């Protein structure tokens, strides 16, 4: 970007409803393309309403289209008007920002991904990356939790992953539902009876902050070291480049030092998740 504060104008080329409150938007990037890593985020402007950060739902080099999946919050300054937009609408794009997931640290290790609710969105590119280079990783397990079956995004993709021997996918919903015959219980209940080797396992945890405390406890119970628990933090970010201070926690800026941190890095924060 020539000007880190000036958004690039892009067109919404496709929209798909994922859940009653979440939609995916594909942004056409033209000949310029766009490159980003799993775990990075962008800032999206809905003109006349404002700008907000969103994790990317796909990643790669010279992408022709960038996908984001956005939850609509009642009264949301950006998410409400964004959900009203359709194909052909123009929005502003800045980024990518942040450090992304540490792929080098994950290679050669067993990987467990724990994704709660909308947390599946930022880890989706990481899942794609591991499946595309499956021989570079050890045992690969994905836990996904949602409130109801209707609240799970990417249903077709989840169904596809469930049939692939390269990944152990385990799904759960919070409470019983007449359309669900799978596991029922909070995402932490998936740890019951699950065996892992703490000496070779990296655990990537993304979801609502309230979930983190309990997942950390489960990981500690199984002997996972603090430096082997990896989080993507949710915190109000604005400029994306460490200038405005909105996302500062002590001496760290979530937008530039993160949003991906190990538990060893954040356990001393005033706003640590446990």
The first-level CATH class of the largest domain is given as Alpha Beta
The Rg value, from CA coordinates, equals: 18 Å
Domain count: the total is 2
Topology order in helix (H) and strand (E) letters: EEEEEHEHEHEHEEEHEEEHEH
What is the number of strand segments?
A: 15
Shape: globular
Give helix % range: 10-25%
Average pLDDT score: 93
Q: Major β-sheet, in short? A: 7 strands, mixed
What CATH calls the topology of the largest domain is Rossmann fold
Strand and helix map with partners:
Elements: E1 8-19, E2 22-28, E3 41-46, E4 50-55, E5 65-71, H1 79-84, E6 90-97, H2 103-106, E7 110-116, H3 120-132, E8 140-146, H4 155-162, E9 168-173, E10 183-184, E11 201-206, H5 209-221, E12 229-232, E13 248-249, E14 252-253, H6 254-257, E15 260-262, H7 263-266
Parallel strand pairs: 7-8, 7-11, 8-9, 9-10, 11-12
Antiparallel strand pairs: 1-2, 1-6, 2-5, 3-4, 3-6, 12-15, 13-14
How would you describe this structure to a colleague?
The model has no long low-confidence stretch (mean pLDDT 93). It contains 7 helices and 15 strands. Strand 13 (248-249) and strand 14 (252-253) form a beta hairpin. It folds into 2 domains: 8-97, Elongation Factor Tu (Ef-tu), domain 3, CATH 2.40.30; 103-266, Rossmann fold. With 274 residues, it is α/β, with parallel strands linked by helices. It starts with 7 loop residues before the first strand and ends in an 8-residue tail after the last helix. The chain has helices at residues 79-84, 103-106, 120-132, 155-162, 209-221, 254-257, 263-266, and strands at residues 8-19, 22-28, 41-46, 50-55, 65-71, 90-97, 110-116, 140-146, 168-173, 183-184, 201-206, 229-232, 248-249, 252-253, 260-262. The protein is globular. The strands form 3 sheets. Strands 10-9-8-7-11-12-15 form a 7-stranded mixed β-sheet, sandwiched between helices.
């Amino acid at each position: 970007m020539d000007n880190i504060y000036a958004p690039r104008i892009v067109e919404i080329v496709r929209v798909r409803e994922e859940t009653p409150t979440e939609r995916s938007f594909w942004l056409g990037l033209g000949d310029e393309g766009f490159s980003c890593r799993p775990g990075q985020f962008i800032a999206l402007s809905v003109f006349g309403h404002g700008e907000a950060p969103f994790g990317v739902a796909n990643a790669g080099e010279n992408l022709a289209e960038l996908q984001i999946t956005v939850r609509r919050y009642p009264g949301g300054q950006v998410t409400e008007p964004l959900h009203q937009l359709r194909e052909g609408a123009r929005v502003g794009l800045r980024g990518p920002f942040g450090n992304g997931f540490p792929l080098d640290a994950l290679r050669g290790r067993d990987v467990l991904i724990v994704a709660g609710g909308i947390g599946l969105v930022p880890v989706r590119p990481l899942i794609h990356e591991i499946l595309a280079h499956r021989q570079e990783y050890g045992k690969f397990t994905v836990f996904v939790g949602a409130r109801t079956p209707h609240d799970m995004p990417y249903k077709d993709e989840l169904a596809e992953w469930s049939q692939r021997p390269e990944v152990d996918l385990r799904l759960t919903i919070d409470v019983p539902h007449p359309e669900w015959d799978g596991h029922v219980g909070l995402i932490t209940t998936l740890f019951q009876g699950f065996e892992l080797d703490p000496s070779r396992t990296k655990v990537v945890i993304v979801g609502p902050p309230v979930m983190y405390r309990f997942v950390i406890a489960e990981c500690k119970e199984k002997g996972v070291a603090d430096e082997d628990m990896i989080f993507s933090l949710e915190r109000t970010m604005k400029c994306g480049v460490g200038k405005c201070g909105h996302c500062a926690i002590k001496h760290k800026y979530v937008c530039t030092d993160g949003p991906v941190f190990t538990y060893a890095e954040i356990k001393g924060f005033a706003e640590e998740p446990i």
